[in-house]
Every structure is written in structure tokens, then in C-alpha cells.
């Protein structure tokens, strides 16, 4: 079951007239700002509700940053070092601020950040970008989007890496299914708690993740999630890991997809019970513009080296999001932060059965894509590749250098996923005070986040783990050779489970080693 949050249309506002907008002959069309065609979308006419857009700036040294990240042995930069070498130029920040304020847009921005969060009534937003904004209905949702290409003042356009929220787009979704879902039903319906998973995978009692912090990226009001985490920890006699919530753009008015964030927080902490903190960056909604702002704050603060994102969007249907978020994820990688992203629950397709697309940000070369396996026999210790595990090659993003030695079934020059996998079915959780059992790469992703926190206790200086995931001895993975998600699992790396399942005790030692 997919839980999808409809994009609400804000209360109607009086049309406002933007002021100090550059004349069209002094503007440039920016690649990626053209209106995005949504199959089957119905144009409902001009919009007057509030619209939110995230604009991301280029690095002041794009070529240098690309060369830096292409070296799998690159250093881990502090925030100050990144800003000095690769952050946006102060002149570019000033240009965007001057333009946005002059155009009547409400601006949220941290000095030195690449991300600008912009908000205004749709007619004002349309005036700022020299286009028009309409309401569209698609797949039962109502969204706002421009009807033609957007334009920006030339200095702003030259500094802009990406922009999301102007073109009409469906919002992100969670990679979560109920355990008994018809499509994703596991072969062995045997709900398991954290103690049973720990026993099955022979997880050591130490390290516990002491001194480490994990960030969860999501959306919704989190009061119920905080209560459910405390109840889960009490139920399974786990330490009370402190949970903090950062409502990045203000607390949402409603609760959406609570089950997802219950799962993420409960199993990230269960797998690393010694954590100092689990921190949720809660976006205002699952619109990609809001999520870009949340991811941007995670990278800007550079306080949480492990991030867990059990969410995504079909990359070819969200090209504007890819363009806006990739600069943020490049910054996170340069600073040694690792984003673990769910590879999706539709096999070689994407959310809702969209044919042959990958889920983003799992398809980013600056994230680790976590796929899913399925325990089919607990006593016989049998595991197979889960048929929902998202896998395939990105259509948009190139293969990172650290995947050059992937081997196995890997083909082509585009980013391949997943990178590794873990159990994705039969997870017992506390949801809204009651019991539930869920499945999905939403489950495997926070588990691997917890394991990575354990690794970082052993080696706190560990940076972005992409290169190391592929360079450690393959004997630290269980090679999963059965299962089919539209492609068949087989010896070595495959499009169902990647390198396979970490053999926990071996993987912890290998990943922490020099």
C-alpha cells in the first residue's frame, strides 16, 4: 500500500502585483525551468493559492568540485572548508536575494547555503519567473505548475543550478507497504521485532552507536512519532534514545504517513541503541520543493553524518528535483555525510508501477541505495532477494567511480542500484499506539543507518561510505543469488540486492578499518 499525501491548494488570495521584476529582454531561460508535462494532467485554469519553490545555487567552482568528488579517496571537508572552496559566491547569494525580494517573494535562506526557499501567491510567483501558473489535476491530486518556460535575470540564471516547485509535479512518496499488501506480501508471514532480527543476523552487543547521531528526512507533524518511539523502546526494553524534531519550515498542520516515520525512528534506534540522538528534519509537506529545503538544512548544519531517507520520486518525472537536490547531496558527500536512501518497492519500476524508472534520491551517485531481501525460513536461515526491491540503472545520472568495480550483472555507464540490501519484510512496529507489521526498503534503510552509526563509533572519522562499500572484501557480504524483482538475482552484484546483505559483525569491522 502506498500512502500518498495530496498537495493542498492554499486558501485563495487576492492577486498581487510583483514589483521590481526584470524586463524579459534582460532575462535568460534556465535549463530545467520549462513546464513539466505530466501525463494525463487536466488544466484547471489560473491558480491563486500559495506556491513554494526551492532554488539551488551552483558551486563557485563546479569543475573543481566534480574533480574533487571523482576521486574516491577524497578528503572530508569541514563546513568552513567546503564553503571556502566550493560554496556559492557571496555575489550570487546577493543577486538572488535582491531579485527575490524585489519580485515580492518571501525568502528563507541561511547565509552560505545553496538553497533558497521562496514562497508567494501563485500570480506573484508567475510574475517573478515571467510565466503563468495554473492548477492541474493528475492522479487524483491537485498541484500547481507553470504553463511555460520560466525566466530569471541573467545574473541569477547564471548562478542557478536547479529549481523545483515551479513546474507541475507529483510529490514524493514513502517506500512503505503494509506487510500483507497483495503485491508485496512476504513468503513467510512471521512478524519479527528488533530482538529477533538481532538474533537472526547475529548482531554483536557492541558497538552500540555510542556518541553518534542519525538524521531522518521526512514530513508531517511528529508528536505521535515521538510517543510511538518511546512505547516501542519500552516494549522491547531498549534505551530511550533522545529524539528531536526540526520543523524546517514550520510545523505541519496535519499528520501524514506517520507509519513511515514510526518505522524509521524505531528501527534506526533499535539497531544502534547507544545513539546520542535521532533527529528528524520534518519538511512542511512531501512536495519536492519543501524536501529540498529540509535536505539543504541537513547538509548546511553538517551535524548528523548519517542520514536516512525512506522516500523518493520517479527520477524522470521529477527532473527538476534532481537538478535542485544534486548540488545539496554533492555538498553532503564532500563533508563526509552519508545519505542512505530506499531503492523503492516496485522492483525495476517506480512508484505506482511507473515503468522502468528509478527512485530518486536513491539513484543519486552521492547517496547509498538500500535494497531489500526477504527472510523465507527463520530456522533454516534462508534469505532471498525481495521482489519489491528497487533496482536498475538511472536514466539521468552517471555511475560514480566507486562503482567501477561492481562486477556481477552491472552494465552500462549510468548509476546502478541498489548498492547493498537488508531484510525488508515482517517488521513489527508501534503505530499510533497500536501494533502493526510493515514491509519495504523503508525498513532496510533505517536498519543500515543504525549499522553505520555502529561503524562510526569504531571510526568517527569515517566519511562518505560509497567507495568503501565497494572496496571492502566481498566476504563481508552474503551474496544473495535467488529472487527476482523484474531482473534476476545472481552471483556477485545484481539489480535486486546489489552487493548483498552485510554480514553484520564482519561488515562493522571492515567498514571501520583504515
TrEMBL record:
- What GO molecular function annotation could you give as one example from this UniProt entry? serine-type endopeptidase activity
Tagged with keyword Hydrolase: yes
Instruction: Tell me where the signal peptide lies.
Output: 1-22
A biological-process GO annotation: proteolysis
Residue ranges constituting the Peptidase S53 domain according to the UniProt record = 191-514
Q: Which domain of life is it from?
A: Bacteria
Checking SUPFAM superfamilies in the record gives: Protease propeptides/inhibitors (SSF54897), Subtilisin-like (SSF52743)
Q: Which Pfam families match?
A: Peptidase_S8 (PF00082), Pro-kuma_activ (PF09286)
- Cite the CDD domains for this sequence: Peptidases_S53, Pro-peptidase_S53
Cofactor(s) annotated in UniProt: Ca(2+)
**Which UniProt keywords are given for this protein, alphabetically ordered?**
Calcium, Hydrolase, Metal-binding, Protease, Serine protease, Signal, Zymogen
Q: Do you know which InterPro entries this protein is assigned to?
A: Peptidase_S8/S53_dom (IPR000209), Peptidase_S8/S53_dom_sf (IPR036852), Peptidase_S8_Ser-AS (IPR023828), S53_propep (IPR015366), Sedolisin_dom (IPR030400), Tripeptidyl-peptidase_I (IPR050819)
Q: Mind telling me which PANTHER family this protein's record contains?
A: PROTEASE S8 TRIPEPTIDYL PEPTIDASE I CLN2, TRIPEPTIDYL-PEPTIDASE 1
What is the name attached to this protein's record? Peptidase S53 domain-containing protein
Q: Which organism is it from?
A: Kutzneria albida DSM 43870
Amino acid at each position: 500500500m502506498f500512502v500518498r499525501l495530496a498537495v493542498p491548494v492554499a486558501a485563495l488570495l487576492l492577486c498581487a502585483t510583483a514589483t521590481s521584476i526584470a524586463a524579459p529582454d534582460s532575462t535568460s531561460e534556465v535549463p530545467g525551468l520549462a513546464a513539466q508535462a505530466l501525463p494525463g494532467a487536466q488544466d484547471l485554469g489560473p491558480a491563486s493559492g500559495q506556491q513554494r519553490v526551492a532554488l539551488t545555487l551552483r558551486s563557485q567552482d563546479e569543475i573543481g568540485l566534480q574533480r574533487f568528488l571523482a576521486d574516491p579517496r577524497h578528503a572530508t571537508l569541514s563546513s568552513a572548508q567546503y564553503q571556502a572552496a566550493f560554496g556559492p559566491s557571496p555575489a550570487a547569494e546577493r543577486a538572488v536575494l535582491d531579485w527575490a525580494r524585489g519580485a515580492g517573494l518571501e525568502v528563507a535562506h541561511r547565509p552560505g547555503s545553496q538553497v533558497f526557499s521562496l514562497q508567494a501567491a501563485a500570480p506573484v510567483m508567475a510574475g517573478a519567473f515571467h510565466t503563468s501558473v495554473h492548477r492541474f489535476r493528475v492522479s487524483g491530486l491537485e498541484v500547481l505548475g507553470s504553463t511555460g518556460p520560466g525566466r530569471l535575470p541573467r545574473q541569477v540564471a547564471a548562478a542557478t543550478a536547479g529549481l523545483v516547485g515551479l513546474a507541475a509535479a507529483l510529490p514524493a512518496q514513502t517506500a512503505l507497504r503494509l506487510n500483507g499488501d497483495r503485491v508485496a506480501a512476504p513468503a513467510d508471514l512471521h512478524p519479527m521485532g528488533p530482538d529477533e532480527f538481532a538474533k537472526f543476523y547475529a548482531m554483536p552487543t557492541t558497538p552500540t552507536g555510542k556518541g553518534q547521531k542519525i538524521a531522518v528526512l521526512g514530513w508531517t507533524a511528529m508528536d505521535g512519532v515521538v510517543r510511538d518511539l518511546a512505547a516501542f523502546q519500552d516494549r522491547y526494553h531498549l534505551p530511550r534514545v533522545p529524539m528531536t524534531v526540526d520543523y524546517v519550515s514550520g510545523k505541519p498542520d496535519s499528520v501524514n504517513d506517520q507509519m513511515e516515520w514510526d518505522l524509521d525512528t524505531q528501527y534506526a534506534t533499535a539497531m544502534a541503541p547507544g545513539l546520542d540522538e535521532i533527529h528528524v528534519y520534518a519538511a512542511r509537506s512531501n512536495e519536492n520543493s519543501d524536501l529540498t529545503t529540509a535536505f539543504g538544512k541537513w547538509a548546511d548544519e553538517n551535524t548528523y553524518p548519517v542520514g536516512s531517507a525512506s522516500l523518493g520520486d520517479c527520477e524522470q518525472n521529477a527532473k527538476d528535483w534532481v537538478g535542485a537536490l544534486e548540488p545539496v547531496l554533492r555538498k553532503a558527500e564532500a563533508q563526509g555525510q552519508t545519505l542512505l536512501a530506499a531503492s523503492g518497492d516496485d522492483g525495476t519500476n517506480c512508484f505506482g508501477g511507473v515503468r522502468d524508472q528509478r527512485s530518486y534520491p536513491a539513484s543519486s551517485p552521492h547517496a547509498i541505495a538500500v535494497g531489500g531481501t526477504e527472510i523465507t525460513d527463520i530456522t533454516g536461515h534462508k534469505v532471498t532477494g525481495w521482489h519489491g526491491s528497487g533496482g536498475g540503472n538511472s536514466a539521468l545520472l552517471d555511475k560514480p567511480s566507486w562503482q567501477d568495480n561492481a562486477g556481477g550483472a552491472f552494465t552500462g555507464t549510468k548509476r546502478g542500484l541498489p548498492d547493498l540490501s537488508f531484510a525488508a519484510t515482517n517488521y513489527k512496529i508501534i503505530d499510533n499506539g497500536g501494533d502493526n507489521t510493515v514491509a519495504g526498503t523503508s525498513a532496510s534503510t533505517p536498519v543500515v543507518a543504525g549499522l553505520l552509526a555502529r561503524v562510526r563509533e569504531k571510526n568517527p572519522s569515517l566519511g562518505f561510505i560509497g567507495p568503501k562499500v565497494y572496496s571492502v572484501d566481498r566476504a563481508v557480504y552474503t551474496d544473495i543469488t535467488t529472487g527476482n524483482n523484474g531482473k534476476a538475482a545472481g552471483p556477485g552484484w545484481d539489480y535486486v540486492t546489489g552487493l548483498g546483505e552485510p554480514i553484520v559483525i564482519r561488515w562493522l569491522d571492515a567498514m571501520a578499518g583504515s
